[in-house]
Amino acid sequence: MKEEKESIQAKSGSRTSLPGYIISVLLLVASPVVMFCAVQMITWLSGQKQLGHIMFRNVVKSLTEIPVDYVIKNMWIYIAVLFVLILIFRKIRWAVLVYGVLLTVITLVNYYVVMFRGQAFMLLDVLGMGTAADVMGNYSFTVPRHLKIILFFEAAFLIFQFVFQKLELGKKSRKNLICRMGSLVILFIVAVQALPLLKNAQGVNLWNVNKDYTQKGYLYTLLLEARYISVEKPDGYSQQKVDEILAENEKETSEEKKTAAGNQTVPQNIIMIMNESLADFESTGDLQTDTEILPFIHSLNKNVTYGKLHVPTFGGGTARSEYEALTGNSIQFFPAACQPYELYVRDPEYGLADILGSQDYEPVAMHPNNASNWNRSKVYVRMGFDEFLSIENWGDEFCDRVRKHYYSDATVYDKIIKMYEDKEEDQKLFTFCVTMQNHGGYDETTNGEDYEPDVKLNYDEEYPYAETYLSLARQSDLAFKDLLTYFEKVDEPTMIVMFGDHWPQLEDGFFEQLLGKKKSSLETIESQITYTTPYIIWTNYPSETKEEDISCNYLGSSMLEKAGVQLTEYEQFLANLKEELPIIGVGAVCDKDGNWYTMDDLPEKYQTLLNEYQILQYNNQFEKKQIRESAFTVE
């Protein structure tokens, strides 16, 4: 049989008029244009506040804010994606339908991620989608009027295309199959050749990604994010440089520091609690409530180190703060939006569990939710935890819930107390606990019908999510008071560390009241306050009391120093670095004198210090052949 020529043609077996053919061609040509407009309008909406006051013509007008050169770059991507789908499906109407649904889904993902987390979706977030899907069921999805209008017109276009589109590729044959496969190979080669161009293109504004999505195009910016997936060696990296840094660090470590451990009480029990979404808004700005939120935490002034903890994430991404606290590594040296628990954790993963486990502590991890969240079931084993208590093996006791979905802090702390009471008398215990009580989703879907907030805000506008959150935070303070009251009376020396992982995602109007301006208008250094949570390192025995603002990567070394246990060379390096740069924030750092610098404006001496830190971290996390294990472990 004579093979038909590969081409886009009208359906075989039917007579298509010239007008019908023209309509089909116009529909095909219009597809990438229509989808580009729909995607960009939805993306623009995701960054807007108070949608009820925005005219729809402003949504359409937002398309004119994209420079022409970026429109062209985006259109090439939209055309390429459609081309691939046509090669796969052959029938244009099916290809366009899948094309429209696919682009709509990935755009709505960003829309709702911004709504729930306050930060844009990024390409690397795909690796954390399992955990995200697990908690998203506790949020309420709403579709505002403007979004409904866009989705309606988009659906109408796709339906019209599906009904009236008559074009398709030629019939299947060996020749046609070879042509399609050849086209895919050519497309792949073009994509590979384009990677260097993407690498040399202007970078993504990692501190305001949604702004780039709006001004440079969603798909184009997503594609640019691929350049951040791999972790490159730091400038000047070599095994010799690692040894030089560690040798210099040994010289800088004073004899006083080296002998301090021998003069300190070493705790028999170390309890470290990462409190979900715990923030101290009373110390942040103009919080007007009818009652104090964290009175007990604020009252601690004896045997305690406390202050603001600068964390690497806002509104979500719990495991990023957790990773920094447990390993001493900094998220700032990784690709933006990455989740190390999903990507980079090696076996073994050196950190607090391994350090304390090597000094006769039994490391136990606790989390009253799914063990698979953020890959913890695998990560904790690699970190050296002997046991992991999750929702799957929690048991029937200590299961009280303040809200419908999440165990209360009080019941989790009761379980910690029970574990202490059940251990052997001379056993040393390191417990790391991640709470769930204050987790996002501050509406009836998560709270349950019976939950009533007991904190009221004194603003003209109502902020029910904020009132719910503040009520939960107040209960966290009460539960923490009960925990410390119990251990204050026990004979065994005990250290309790507690810190928040990130701010909650609440109403934009509430944040504007709190901060005195819109959160989205904060400059890089101004925005650092939104990445702060409280931290406490408390002991039930005499210890130094001081206030100190630090970043989360230093929390572990600060805890080990106060505990008087042996530090690794790496943790000692961090302790020394903290004296010069106590805060490594999000896109900015703060020195010992309180001076803030953006990463683009760092003095040379601080660039050198951060480069040394990055070199050691790379050796710790990514070196395959010459890892300096002795620097990250204790004898």
What does this structure look like?
- This is LTA synthase family protein.
- Pfam families: Sulfatase.
- The chain is of the alpha/beta class and about 625 residues long.
- It folds into 2 domains: about 10-230, no CATH class; about 265-565, Alkaline Phosphatase, subunit A, CATH 3.40.720.
- It is built from 23 helices and 14 strands.
- Strands 3, 4, 5, 6, 7, 8, 9, 10 and 11 form a 9-stranded mixed β-sheet that branches. A 3-stranded antiparallel β-sheet has the order 12-13-14, with no helix packed on it. It has a two-stranded antiparallel sheet with strand order 1-2.
- α22 runs antiparallel to α23.
- The chain is globular.
- Mean pLDDT is about 85; it is low at about 1-5.
